[in-house]
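SEQUENCE-TO-STRUCTURE ENTRY
===========================
What this section holds: a protein sequence and its matching fold, both as plain text.
Question of interest: how does this chain fold, as expressed in backbone structure tokens?
***
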Amino acid sequence: MTKINTLAQRLARPELLDLEVYQSARRIGGQGDIWINANESPFNNTALVGVNRYPECQPPALIDAYSRYSKVPSQCILTGRGADEAIEILIRTFCNPGIDAITTFGPTYGMYAISAKTANVAVNALQLTDNFQLPTDYTAQIDKGLSSKIMFICNPNNPTGSVISRDVLIEVVDNNPNQLVVVDEAYIEFSPEYSVADLVASKSNLVVLRTLSKAFALAGARCGFLLANPDIIDMCMRVIAPYPVPLPVSELAVQALSPDGLATMQNQVAEMNLQGQRLAQALQTFGAKVVQAHGNYVLAEFNDKPTVQQKLTQAGVIARSYNDKRLANCIRFSFSNQAQTDYLINLFSAPN
């Protein structure tokens, strides 16, 4: 029986503590020139070296590259198929089906709740305030609800584009020492001053989610990161798939995290922010109520949403609407390049 010494061990599903972790061929490793331990093909039919072999579970080059970029120690980084896989891994690692719950603050990203419900984990669905901040009595609301193991806070929040200050997030982490506080920073490159990633090594209950899908323009590659102290990483490694990051994805990601790749990302973020400001101003001039944007999108509330939707459809524009009753009159617009932004601005400037 494993001796329980850490918060991660205390929160983890008990059957994981003594789980004999699957040892893939790459985890076992070895020295030699003839590799016949993984039932792989000896033939490489592509120009990509090594694609006929299984990749490393946690590719060292990718982990090191993200460590340099994020300034988070490599032992505090786990990589996988986007932040979505990280959400599922956390729930599978720490929540007992039919017993535990997660806490969310809506309106927010829907996959927290969906990932929980598909794992038979309940959801304490709390609401953000009118200006999309945490409710002052959130602790009391959680205490009255189901047994919460994980609290998910999206910051910047999708779909509202609002942010919660770094100081408030630190208070939440410090005031909830017996549950994991997961801060989803998928859009943090657009508002980096709000990040709490620098604290993961020193906070036993803080987890930060990151992705290359947004600012790094690699949504189709599916590469994300879970940042946390090594105790949490160790528990999550017990449930992660043997080969979560395909070799082509890893190589694309390492290129994106190179000095040239980072410069490209930063230039493109600046351009998207500029075009987003232009779009937000045009929407306000049109009469929409706009939430100040901190991601690569702007949420706009319209007095006559059906008419706006018809205008967009006729113009060949696909934007995002929501079923959430608080967003019934809202449409979310992702930032784009100058040409498409010009098109949208002209669309909302034209008479009905």
Observations:
- The first strand starts at residue 77 and ends at 80.
- The longest helix spans residues 259-286.
- Residues 155 and 185 are 6 Å apart (CA to CA).
